[in-house]
Amino acid sequence: MTTQQTPLDSPLGRTGEPGLPLASGRDTLRVAGAILPIVAQGVIARRRSVVALAGKLDTDGRGVRTMQDLATRYGSGPVRLRLPARRAALVLDGEGVRRVLDGTPDPFAPDTWEKRKALGQFQPHGVLVSHGEVRAERRRFNEAVLDSGHPLHHNASVMARAVAQEAEQLGREVDRSGELDWDAFIRAWWRVVRRVVLGDGARDDHDLTDQLTRLRNAGNWSFLLPRQRARRERFRDRVRAHLERAEPGSLAEMIARTPADPEVDPVDQVPQWLFAYDPAGAAALRALAALVAHPAELAAAREEIHDRDLALPQDLPRLRAAVLESVRLWPTTPLLLRETTRSVRWDDGELAGRTVLIIPTWFLHRDGRTRADANRFDPQQWLDGAAQEDPALVPFSAGPGRCPGRELVLFTTSLFLAHLLRGRELELAVPELDPQAPLPAGVDPFAVRLRVRPTG
Fold it and tell me: Is pLDDT above 70 for 8?
């Protein structure tokens, strides 16, 4: 049975004239219904109770199916949405993703109004909320400190020692308890993060990261909450005190050694690094769960670390691939946003200036119409180059706006997992992941639990 389409609902546009497809009011509401559960889970800081509920209701999976239907009806896009106070469009294919991300920051600016409101709570001078030459200077500073583009950071030896010590302490704890869960994992992970970013003197500064979490929680509410300026200043003072030590081997040392333009504000670059490392921990724990659920992949990962001295910096391609595949399956940034700086001509029409472009990575990474591996764990594609050839796969974004800390995150997560895998057998208790069945669209990292048995 078919229904007749009215000019108002036509993908050709409001009047039926050729142009970029315009979603009907009903379909715009369906898009909102797919995106709102993602926003509700926390775009800046995850809300544990909402993440758990979303998993039970399979809101991520439902959203993928909604986007598939829209892409089938309207084409690859961009598909314009009927919003009352904001021009917006969905990017629904890989070539569109490539064009938008390669065109960062002009004509597709990353500092959208939504980002400025949300991130302004804790990093109002960060790269993600900057534009023009100021953004370029801040980006250069970030890339220099983070040693972007190199698998092993300049300070990798000291960082590897911090990872080894914290992973070994966690290993002793879980060997005694017989269980590894989120709370134990994230405590150890934050100790690693504080040491890598700020030095050993920050190892036990739990209050620092707790303050950041409170500011990030406020960021979830974007423009609905006023700026928490006093709290942010207390947080900045604490960061500044750690940076003043400039401990050898930390990013704080790199900051002290890297010339900074007056517009950069080095202290205000640090919150983004700490912020990025939080979802990286969730990605690492999901990767560990996926490996344990897939015996062949687990065996390959164990073979990679066999007889290696993990106290030294290591490039671990298989474990890096497992983390990348974890982020592909369960994106830590499910929505990428860009805003047009001027009118942009597309194949079938024109996007007006100040249109926010929404790249739904959680859909693009799981689109079973275009991906045979949409719902299975396939780290091999990150080893043989197949994933890099697909512009729709952007676990760390892409183009000039790609995450400058990508390599550092992959280094620390893969090495941390290597230590946890060595010397113990792991069995996945929660969730149940069947390697023969489609993997769920949402896996709650807060609920992950593994049984642990030391093997000597």
Answer: no
pTM above 0.90, yes or no: yes
pLDDT (tens digit per residue) in 103-152 = 999 999 999 999 999 999 999 999 999 999 999 999 999 999 999 999 99
Amino acid at 281: G
Nearest to 378 by CA among 419, 439, 335, 449: 439
Cα–Cα dist 293/112, whole Å:
39
Task: Note the pLDDT tens digit of each residue in 9-58.
Answer: 334 443 334 589 999 999 999 999 999 999 999 999 999 999 999 999 99
Pick from 67, 69, 18: nearest CA to 334: 67
How many CB atoms are located within 10 Å of the residue 117 CB? 17
pLDDT tens profile 319-352: 999 999 999 999 999 999 999 999 999 988 999 9
**Alpha-carbon torsion 408, 385, 387, 78, what sign?**
positive
User: Among 102, 147, 203, 23, which Cα is nearest to 406's?
Assistant: 147
- DSSP annotation of 445 reads G
**Coil, strand or helix at 360:** strand
Terminal CA-to-CA distance of the chain, rounded, Å?
Answer: 65
pLDDT at 412: 98
Q: What's phi and psi for 173, nearest 5 deg? A: -65, -45
Q: Tell me the C-alpha distance between 151 and 389, whole Å.
A: 19
Other residues' Cβ atoms within 10 Å of the Cβ of residue 303: 10
Long-range contacts of 21-27 (CB under 8 A, 24+ apart): 21/74, 21/75, 21/77, 21/78, 21/79, 21/80, 21/348, 22/79, 22/80, 22/82, 23/70, 23/74, 23/79, 23/80, 23/81, 23/82, 23/90, 24/82, 25/82, 27/70, 27/73, 27/74
